[in-house]
Design a protein that fits this description.
This protein is mainly β and 205 residues long. It is built from two helices and 21 strands. It has a single domain, classed as UDP N-Acetylglucosamine Acyltransferase, domain 1, CATH 2.160.10.10. The longest helix is centred in the N-terminal third of the chain and has 12 residues. The radius of gyration is 18 Å and the shape is elongated.
């Protein structure tokens, strides 16, 4: 190891992240990392088989926090998950960060739960406590705080009104509760926008 590599790994270690060699070695546990040099992972993050970490992903734990990512989940470029004393759990086959990254933060006592097959894209964020149910979606640069999106099918489900809850557009969503098969589209404050059936946006021919 040359001087530059040693300095890089020392900086990683001082911030609680795995060395480059340790990050690369995650591939032996079934984690797919095309560009390990661009990835920062805290030492006690739990990653299950088949997780894919695309470039510029950060998974950071501090102050007794916890991050667990389920099997076959994709974390796309620009995804940042931080557990500063809180807990973030991502279930299997979720898709997070496509089309602009995504930020998830859980402070002391806060819990963020993301269900199987959920899809979060477009530069949005989750802060405070949130439950994003199975198949639910956040589509766009939406700042979500204390939101609950109901369980349902994924966006591939042929019946829109049976899919998980959806937020789409841009702006701020605080204390929003979206049941299965429903959606709020807004460009500003989501609390002021109507809740509609998803079939409103995806009518059958």
């Amino acid at each position: 190891m040359n001087e530059a590599e040693a300095a890089r790994d020392a900086a990683r270690g001082s911030l609680g992240f795995l060395s480059l060699a340790e990050t690369t070695a995650l591939s032996h546990r079934g984690v797919l990392i095309p560009e390990p040099g661009s990835i920062l992972i805290s030492t006690d993050v739990q990653l299950h088989d088949g997780v894919t970490l695309w470039p510029n992903v950060i998974l950071q734990v501090s102050d007794g926090g916890r991050i667990a990512v389920g099997s076959r989940t994709n974390l796309f470029p620009g995804t940042r998950i931080v557990a500063m004393g809180g807990m973030v759990t991502v279930a299997a086959e979720a898709e997070i960060g496509e089309e602009g990254g995504f930020t998830i933060k859980a402070g002391a006592g806060e819990i963020v739960e993301i269900g199987d097959g959920a899809r979060l894209l477009g530069g949005g964020s989750l802060t405070l406590s949130n439950r994003i149910g199975r198949g639910a979606q956040i589509l766009g640069p939406i700042r979500c705080q204390n939101c609950t999106l109901g369980d349902g099918g994924t966006y591939r489900d042929p019946e829109p009104d049976e899919r998980g809850g959806v937020l789409k557009g841009s702006g701020v969503a605080r204390n929003i509760d979206i049941p299965q098969g429903h959606v709020i589209q807004a460009f500003g404050l989501f609390a002021e926008a109507p809740v509609r059936r998803q079939s409103y946006f995806h009518p059958k021919a």
